[in-house]
Design a protein that fits this description.
Elements: H1 5-13, H2 20-36, H3 48-60, E1 76-80, H4 88-94, E2 99-104, H5 107-119, E3 125-129, H6 132-135, E4 145-151, H7 156-163, E5 167-178, H8 182-194, E6 197-204, E7 214-221, H9 235-238
Parallel strand pairs: 1-2, 1-4, 2-3, 4-5
Antiparallel strand pairs: 5-7, 6-7
Helix pairs in contact: 1-3, 3-4, 7-8
Bound molecules: S-adenosyl-L-homocysteine.
S-adenosyl-L-homocysteine binds near residues 81, 104, 131, 133 and 151.
């Protein structure tokens, strides 16, 4: 029986060969998403084919922006505003060695994250119920991640304040974005610099599955973020740094 065939073929074009075990994990992830979505509002996308591309394959495109050092046992990744685990959980399924932190403010969603990570028997996954504005000031999370990822959480200027404090100097923040980004990036430029980042590249995702201009915004962390940031919960979006 073939399962998750759209995902398998798309991932292949990203240079990722998925094993039977991984495809089965993705299949279970889809089933559980659909099941939980009846009670908890996790996603508007539930169809078998749509979830494979719009959630799972989309998550794996992060791999295109991976640093040249690659994936090894010591790498630490945090997904800021992960919701139902996107893009963090698909990355963990494909790269089981990474240490993954899933950060999510809504407790109903973190309940799902606990459920799915035990259902998929994922190890070395930490689920944090909280807001980035608070968590980023905790010592064990601040300036400590090799890679910070985030999808569909906030405009770039706000997102930079929520995400860059987690990144260690020499690490990288990868944001998944859609559509015309130029104004959004222009507005964020000063904030990125202030927070210790430097815009490295806006990379187009060239896969036939995504005709809707998807991009990866890649920001290098060059300097430690000043201790003031992020500001109190809600402020980064209410009064963006620009
Ligand atoms: N990344 C997921 C979810 C996007 S929805 C996906 O692409 O499918 C945005 C999620 O970010 C919501 O679940 C919301 O609760 C969470 N979120 C928004 N602001 C946050 C913050 N400041 N700290 C932590 N989580 C946040």
């Amino acid at each position: 029986m073939t399962i998750m065939e759209n995902l398998e073929s798309g991932a292949g074009r990203l240079g990722l060969q998925l094993s039977t075990k991984q495809l089965e994990q993705f299949h279970t992830y889809w089933e559980e998403l659909v099941e939980w979505n009846r009670r908890v509002n996790l996603t508007g996308i539930t169809g078998y084919h749509e979830v494979q591309t719009k959630h799972f394959l989309d998550s794996l495109t992060i791999y295109l922006a991976w640093p040249p050092t690659g994936v090894n046992t010591t790498i630490r990744i945090i997904d800021v505003g992960t919701g139902s685990g996107i893009p963090g959980v698909p990355l963990k399924i494909v790269f089981p060695e990474v240490h993954l932190v899933l950060l999510e403010a809504t407790e109903k969603k973190t309940a799902f994250l606990h459920h799915i990570s035990s259902r998929l028997m994922l190890t070395d996954v930490e689920i944090v119920a909280g807001r980035a504005e608070d968590t980023a000031h905790q010592k064990q999370y601040r300036d400590s991640f090799d890679i910070v990822v985030s999808r569909a959480v906030a405009p770039m200027v706000t997102l930079a304040e929520l995400a860059l404090p987690f990144c260690k100097v020499g690490g990288r923040f990868i944001a998944q974005k859609k559509g015309n980004l130029i104004p959004e990036i222009n507005r964020a430029e000063r904030a990125i610099k202030l927070l210790g980042g430097r815009l490295r590249e806006v990379m187009n995702v060239e896969l036939e599955e995504f005709p809707d201009e998807r991009q990866l915004v890649i920001i290098d962390k060059e300097l430690a973020t000043p201790g003031l940031y992020p500001r109190r919960p809600g402020i980064p979006s209410k009064r963006p740094l620009s």
